[in-house]
Structures are given as C-alpha cells and as structure tokens.
Design goal:
Blueprint (H helix, E strand, L loop, with lengths): L21 H8 L4 H8 L18 H14 L3 H14 L2 H12 L6 H8 L13 H10 L12 H5 L2 H8 L10 H16 L7
Helix pairs in contact: 3-4, 4-6, 5-6
Length: about 200
C-alpha cells in the first residue's frame, strides 16, 4: 500500500514525471520493496520513467546483492532485467564501467548476474574490454544449454571480427552439443553486426 492507502499497483496507472527527482527515485528503490520497485518500473525494459536523468546509486555491490537475492528466490527475473537496463540508460559511463570491472574480477560472485542481466544492455562494449579470465568464463558459458536465447548473449553483442576469427571459429571443428548450437547462434548474430557471414549454412 502507498502512504495514502492506495494499492502500490495503482502507481502503474499514474504518469509520473521524475525530472529533478532522481534522489527520490533511488531512495524508493533502496527500500528493497519488490512490489514498489516493479510498479515504478512498469512493464518495459528499460523502465519507462519520464524525465528521469542520471542516477547516483552508490556502491554497485549493494544493487548486485539485491538482484542476486531476487534471482535466488525465483520471484521476478524480469525485474532483474529491468534493473540492469536501468543502469545502462541512467548511470554515468564511469558508474557503468564499474560493472565491467566487477565482471573482470577473478573472484567476483556476480559474474553470472552481470553476464545475463546487466552487461547485455550496454551497446558500446567489445570483447577487448574483458580480461582473459572473463573471456574464459564467457566461452565456458556457451557449453550450457540455453545460454544463448533469441541470439542474446554477451558474446553475440561484443565479439569483434578478430575475436570471432581467432577464438570462436576454431571451436567449431570439435564442438559438440550444446556448444555447437550456441556457437552457431553467436556467430550468426556477430556476423549480422559485422556485415559478414561466418557460417555457410
């Protein structure tokens, strides 16, 4: 319920203007009330938040821990995706790059979360920004059935032509299932971005 006794869900029906209210928006999210946050986000990804400018969210661990808790509970994977897209649209480049730095950390506990729900919302990343250990993590993920959905995978979106030639194409010769299927999806998507056809069929 909201402070005036109205159901939180009614917020979805109200057209709010968040211009100049960025601090309040972050404060409301920090209540960690999933129902309230989902109402603020609405039904789109990234969330449709008219007037909302750049957000100051503080340490990223706090947000990744919350997203991880939501994910482990199985409550709302869609919400985690919305949160990741919010970061890509409404954080400074410096703040966004903290997520890349976290992904590159050898001992990061948030890698899977970043791989699937945060970094894919960036459209300016290439494999050149990832550490070799992070690259190994990305390649290993292709061995997981269902890791590439609707051509969406971080490698689909970030692989450079050089990376495709040197790291992905050589894997085709010995790849079994599910790696082979996932590789083909990634190569089709990467080829579309590069204007090239990496697979003959």
């Amino acid at each position: 319920m909201t402070a005036d006794g109205e159901p939180i869900g009614s917020l979805r029906e109200i057209e709010l203007d968040w211009a100049g209210q960025e601090i309040l928006f972050v404060h409301l999210l920090k209540l960690r009330d999933l129902e309230l946050a989902s109402a603020l986000f609405g039904g789109s990804s990234p969330p449709r938040s008219p007037g909302l400018g750049e957000l100051e969210v503080g340490p990223i661990d706090w947000w990744l821990e919350w997203a991880g808790e939501v994910g482990r509970s199985g409550k709302d994977v869609w919400f985690i995706d919305q949160l990741g897209s919010l970061f890509a649209v409404h954080l400074s480049r410096e703040a966004q790059d903290q997520f890349v730095a976290e992904f590159n950390r050898v001992d990061s506990q948030f890698r899977s979360l970043l791989l699937h729900f945060v970094l894919p919302h960036r459209n300016d990343l290439t494999t050149s920004v990832f550490s070799e250990e992070a690259i190994s993590f990305l390649l290993a993920d292709l061995n997981r059935a269902g890791s590439v959905t609707y051509f969406r995978h971080l490698l689909s979106q970030t692989a450079t032509e050089e990376f495709v030639t040197e790291r992905l194409l050589p894997l085709l010769a010995t790849a079994g299932s599910p790696l082979l299927e996932n590789l083909r999806l990634v190569l089709k998507r990467a080829g579309s971005r590069h204007g090239r056809r990496y697979l003959l069929h």
